[in-house]
Amino acid sequence: MTAVSSPSGAWRTEAKATLALGLPLVGSQLAFIAQTSTDVLMMGWVGPETLAAGSLGFNLYVTLFVFAMGVAYAAGGPMAQARGAGRPGEIGYLLPQSLIATTAVTLPLALVLTQSEAILLLLGQTHDNAAAAGHYALAMAPSLVLANWFITLRGFMATYGHTRFVLVVALLGLPLNAVLVFALLFGRFGAPALGLTGVGLATSLVSLVSFLALVAYVLCVPKLRRHLRFPWRPDGARLAMLLKLGLPIGTTLVLEVSLFSAAVMLMGILGVAELAAHQIALQWASMTFMIPMGLAQAATVRVGLAVGAGDLAAARQAAHVGWALAGIFMLGAASVFWFLPEPLVAVFIDADAAPLVASLACSYLAVAAVFQLVDATQAVGAGSLRGLKDTRWPMIMAGIGYWLIGFPTAALLGFWAGWRGIGVWIGLALGLAVTAALMVGRFERLTRPARQRRELAAEIG
Questions:
Q1: pLDDT per position as a tens digit, 392-414
Q2: pTM recorded for the entire structure
Q3: Domains in the chain: how many in total?
Q4: Which of 26, 44, 310, 452 counts the highest number of beta carbons within 10 A?
Q5: Are residues 190 and 137 in the same domain?
């Protein structure tokens, strides 16, 4: 893959480059969702108590994981800019510093995860649930570090367009995870029956194997292997730069995750039927969101390459193509949500056995149809801004959109206006729409024609 230098009208060329880079990343994101769904499915086979405890442990893990993921994402923009500027040697310095920064953030968070039982007891959970969830989270603690090392290497490989092997590893991880979970959860194939601890251990083992697979690939590709020869001692200036970029990304991700966690609390107040329907609609929305999430990672690289080459017009084109592709994919998903909600709901629940839940889920999917488009816009917008090494303002915009507008609107429409679950979903959609508009506006302002280049250099360094 070469730096972006095509004229602004060459959308087809840019689309091909973005899809070649982004589709394997989309596939790896979908594989991650499939892996977690496998875990949930097998927990459910044991019983509702195991599933409930597993959900508690996993929610704690995810909150810490997405914050750390921000630091793992941080090097993507600088690496792409360095390659676009014809300075590949800089990537050799950034890669080890990125892994060091990721380790510095994930190790303390993994230690926090080992105290999950105590944390859950403080949050009012029962002793049995807290103990089971604590054992599960303890077994997953190594994955918090290993999975973020994997993400760091994935970003490095994406800079050079080597994303197909990432997809291969993610796909091979699916059956490996299924076999390990089945064996360690139920005590099959000569393995001990470890219950939830076995599920967490399987997650950590798959993360280890996946990370080592990427390391082996990098060692086998000369263009990538040469970047492992650079000094691995801490570099204060580069570490500070990566943390300055990464901590706001992590905070932005936590702001979004916590918004949806808060929406679950609102739905729980409304009633069991609303909560169940919300989970069904959210599960489908989460699956389709993996598409713009993968394309956002591709946008980071494509925009970064263009900025490194000094071509702001190409950077704008890369972002616009990313938005267009994400919009096309999500328009298709939105059409299914709008016109065919019943079959989607039927995957999770029998409409005859729970007609109210099924009806509510269908109505939430109708709102999610609009929700899909704005969610895709904000995801690619955030990825494009990372390509500019701009992360602080996106964090502020997420705080405004999600928590100053989205959550209050959800609460007001859901309870004060009496719109119940529909009101909550409209509030979520509005928060995402405002965030998307702010991010698009900032990207467009930062990449204006030549007269604004000085402003861009001043703002993003």
A1: 999 999 999 999 999 999 999 99
A2: 0.88
A3: 2
A4: 26
A5: yes
